Amino acid sequence: MTETSYLCVSNADTPYMSQADQAQPEAQDARRPQRPQTVGYWTLLLSGIVFGYVRRAVSPHGFSPIQFLILAVCYRGEANTVSGIARVLPFDASAVSRRVEEMRAKGLVETRRSREDRRVVHVELTEEGQTLVRQLLEEVRVEASKHTAVLTNREEKRLISLMRKVVESVEGWQ
Fold it and tell me: Whole-prediction pTM value?
């Protein structure tokens, strides 16, 4: 499968749109181009939107979205080692290690090598890091709520459930 064909994948045996949803694009303004009705297209589009609002929330504080995600993973207790963070996020351990080192230099995290295995690097938020990540999480939440306000609570929970199902089906995803 080519990279571009991924955007066009749909499961013909399992309708992913109701007949009403399929008819909806016809009701759109004729001047607007019809968007592909595929999971890949909408996932990439939504990823770009999310990345954009995360970037807008964290960049005034001198952070990249990747650094923010690493801080958030540590703050939430999802992982406390460089390799653990790399398993939680879709980044390799060397990229995580570089970003952790940048944040250590800013005084936001402390690192220490494991006594049992010197290859293992533990990551812990400093007090300053904890304060900052709480603030950033709130700013990102506020920005995200602007986009998700169109969903009912039930729709939001269903969307999360479906996205989780797809992510967890990916081989090797932790």
Answer: 0.71
